[in-house]
Design brief:
alpha/beta; single chain; globular; 4-stranded mixed beta sheet; 4 strands
Length: 79
Amino acid sequence: MRTKEGFEVDFLATPLTGRPTLIQVCADVSDAETRAREFRALSAAMTEHKKLPALLLTASSTGLSHAQAEAPAGATVRP
């Protein structure tokens, strides 16, 4: 999905019950610029979609602690 500003979020997961969740997938969050780009998109989508919860999934644990500390309010980072 794209935000009004043109940022891309990978998924808007809509379960049969419960609240929808914005999901961003990133192979490696060790680079500060990559984290900033991914979080910018999630933040914009969270604002547009009434503060939906967000999840950033990463394949690597490298940089995970930085990503968890920098995540916008309402977003969770998981390997």
